[in-house]
Task: structure prediction
Amino acid sequence: MADQKRTPLMIVTWAWVGLPFVYGVYELLLKLGPLFGG
Result:
């Protein structure tokens, strides 16, 4: 288990990596629709 001091750092780190990743996947899905769907 992570100690109390590292928990906020872990949250910030996951957000720093995860949010751009989720946004990129979202943009990809928006662009795949017209590409394959016509």
Observations:
- The longest helix spans residues 7-37.
- The two ends are 49 Å apart (CA to CA).
- The mean pLDDT is 90.
- The chain is about 80% helix and 0% strand.
